[in-house]
Automatic annotation (TrEMBL):
One GO CC term on file: cytoplasm
Processing and modification events after translation: Contains an active site 4-methylidene-imidazol-5-one (MIO), which is formed autocatalytically by cyclization and dehydration of residues Ala-Ser-Gly.
InterPro entries (UniProt xref): Aromatic_Lyase (IPR001106), Fumarase/histidase_N (IPR024083), HutH (IPR005921), L-Aspartase-like (IPR008948), Phe/His_NH3-lyase_AS (IPR022313)
GO MF: histidine ammonia-lyase activity
2,3-didehydroalanine (Ser) found at: 140
Alphabetized PROSITE patterns for the sequence: PAL_HISTIDASE
Protein name: Histidine ammonia-lyase
Cross-link 5-imidazolinone (Ala-Gly), where in sequence: 139-141
NCBIfam families: hutH, PRK09367.1
Organism in which the protein naturally occurs: Sphingopyxis fribergensis
Compartments in which it is found: Cytoplasm
UniProt superkingdom: Bacteria
Enzyme Commission designation: 4.3.1.3
Catalysed reactions, semicolon-separated: L-histidine = trans-urocanate + NH4(+)
Length: 506
């Protein structure tokens, strides 16, 4: 992937997250060189400039001698590499590194060509710093996580390469790379920024899109299993309200069910007047989810193409302007949006599972087993889904409203974007399991309607599951069935198996 600063799409970031290599476009290097030259001129003038020849944070008034500027930059990296917790996933660290590379490519950070090239080379050679996942409050940048990345670049800490974790200096030597000797501004530029929070949020956005599309399919399957009506998906209803996501979800559900013999079997003389909200209000709920995810995608797309370290270097005037682009409030809000979206995808899916196992609501055998009583069928998988949904509700408390002062009150309002974004992959795992359970339950319900067939699209989804999991006749060890179905959801395999165009975030 060629990174052209300020012009990188979400699809590009998705490819990098999934393993594509990343390097800067040739046109970016002139701006990088100009920015580094501006820093050199600022140092030569001798005036105190924050981040270049002063201390940091509350110590910004302390002037640093020219012969100690390299030590200053090394010290800030070592002192700020104070993260804790489990190592961040390798894919997220790679994405964080690529985001930092793109930011440097804008030519506003004052780093040397050699420093940017080192980041690029580590990505190319698969050298991924070991970055503890906890320790950032999402203001003054993701200081601790990015410091662990920077520490690896100067030969300190640990690097993962080929699945093995080595001391950073040893890993660099094996790859034929020399540890960096940081110049003025460079340590601060490396550890200042929102790339850790943004990387986690982007990774979760990509997962959320797969889950959203999967839940459209399982929602349609559940509607079929319960012999629900497709009238609530009529385009005229949604046109009158006007929300884009609602219209698109209604269209998608109608398309997924088109041509169903199950639907046709009860299209006339159905004694039920209305379906439960979990079926009838899918366009309204999932449409709102889609709109929310798209807003988060817009925010993250802008953030990923921006510059968020401090101070920023303006080479045309030799100015270093100190501001607050490191404050990750936009990312925190986006992460909270994704958390709410994940909650609602799982919540309405769990309600459909509960509806399917209740014979009074679904018209199907109790707990979806042919011999209830002797067999418990889907009784406890629904309980598991309920547990996961409640766990996600607890995790969805908005991170962006929780600020705590740091750095002797110099950094007195923070975004909490890092943990707001970091919780999302665990929430996505929970939703994957809920939708996997719904896939099992809905297909089990459809099996009771044989020999009637569903639509071509939904029959493809049914067949895809049945290639892995047979119909449940009598109770068996349920966990393997759930694991198999969840894997189809998590991998995007179910979405790929269905011949239908489903809306996404962009």
């Amino acid at each position: 992937m060629i990174i052209t600063p300020a012009a990188i799409t979400l699809a590009d970031w998705r490819e990098i997250y999934e393993g594509a290599s990343a390097e800067l476009s040739a046109g970016a290097w002139d701006a990088i060189d100009a920015s580094a030259a501006a820093v050199a001129r600022i140092v030569a003038k001798g005036a105190p400039v924050y981040g270049i020849n002063t201390g940091f944070g509350k110590l910004a008034s302390v002037r640093i001698a020219d012969d100690e500027l390299s030590v200053l930059q090394r010290n800030i990296v070592l002192s700020h590499a104070a993260g804790t917790g489990a190592p961040s996933p390798t894919k997220i660290v790679r994405l964080m590194m690529a985001l930092k590379l793109a930011s440097f490519g804008m030519g506003a950070s004052g780093v040397k060509r050699e420093t940017v090239a080192m980041l690029e080379a580590m990505l190319a050679k698969g050298l991924i710093p070991v970055v503890p996942s906890q320790g950032s409050v999402g203001a003054s940048g993701d200081l601790a996580p990015l410091s662990h990345m920077a520490a690896a670049m100067i030969g300190v800490g640990a690097i993962e390469i080929g699945g093995k974790v080595l001391p950073a200096a040893e890993a660099l030597e094996q790859a034929g790379l020399e540890p960096l000797d940081l110049g003025p501004k460079e340590g601060l530029a490396l550890l200042n920024g929102t790339q850790f929070s943004t990387g986690n949020a982007l990774a979760s956005l990509f997962r959320a899109e797969i889950l959203f599309r999967s839940a459209l399919i399982t929602g349609a399957l559940s509607t079929e299993a319960a012999k629900g009506s497709d009238a609530p998906f009529d385009a005229r209803i949604h046109a009158l309200r006007g929300h884009a996501g609602q219209r698109e979800v209604g269209d998608a559900l109608r398309t997924l069910m088109a041509g169903s013999a199950i639907r046709a079997s009860h299209a006339v003389d159905d004694p039920r007047v209305q379906d439960p909200y979990c079926l009838r209000c899918q366009p309204q709920v999932m449409g709102a989810v889609l709109d929310l995810l798209r807003q988060a995608a817009t925010t993250l797309g802008i953030e990923a193409n921006g510059v968020s370290d401090n101070p920023l270097i303006f080479a045309d005037t030799d100015e270093a302007l100190s501001g607050g682009n490191f404050h990750a409030e936009p990312v925190a809000f986006a992460a909270d949006m994704i958390a709410m979206a994940l909650c609602e995808i799982g919540s309405i899916a769990e309600r459909r599972i509960a509806m399917l196992v209740d014979p009074a609501l679904s018209g199907l055998p109790a707990f979806l087993t042919p011999r209830p009583g002797l067999n418990s069928g889907f009784m406890i998988p629904q309980v598991t889904a309920a547990a996961l949904v409640s766990e996600n509700k607890q995790r969805a408390y908005p991170a962006s409203v929780d600020s705590i002062p740091t750095s002797a009150n110099q950094e007195d309002h923070v975004s909490m974007a890092a943990h707001g974004a970091r919780r999302l992959l665990d929430m996505a795992d929970n939703v994957s399991a809920v939708i996997g359970i719904e896939l099992l339950a809905a297909c089990q319900g459809i099996d009771f309607h044989a020999p009637l067939k569903s639509s071509d699209a939904l029959e493809a989804a049914h067949k895809h599951l049945r290639a892995q999991v047979p119909t449940l006749e009598d109770d068996r060890h349920f966990h393997p069935d759930m694991e198999a179905a969840t894997a189809l959801i998590r991998s995007g395999s179910l979405v790929a198996a269905v011949p239908a165009s489903l809306p996404g975030v962009g």
